[in-house]
Amino acid sequence: MTKDVFVSVTGLQVMGDTESYDPIEMVTVGEYYFRNGKHFIKFDEVFEGFSGTTENLIKASSESIEVRKKGTANVHMIFNPQKKNVTFYQTPFGSIQMGISATRIHCSESEEEIDIQVDYSLELNEEAIADCYISVNVRPKTASQFSLTS
Questions:
Q1: What does each C-alpha distance from 74 to 30, 65, 66, 77, 102 come to in angstroms?
Q2: Which domain holds residue 14?
Q3: Is residue 150 part of a domain?
């Protein structure tokens, strides 16, 4: 895998009895490296209506996925099926206590692609909010190998 990559992030949240939901998708460029048996994916994110960016760092292994955000929003989330992670999500509007209980993580890799999937339950201020899914796909930054429909 090359250092310069395309990063595609898709997320779903199913709240309560809601039968319809819209996925959130983002495609951006980033950096990739592999160190000490873990995949590291780094990319910037812009929040609509706010100046500045948020730097994202994903550290992935077969046992756990960590996501760190620094900038407009700040948080350190750990997705580990063995234990619940409680953290504080700092937003421009204030701080929110967030509980994450991962039910499944999957990280697969090939020479030209890394796929990460996480299923988890989300709590805000100790109240169950949603069942969630996030998918991260990382590919080398070459136009012939990346398609928005893949």
A1: 19, 17, 13, 10, 20
A2: 4-145
A3: no
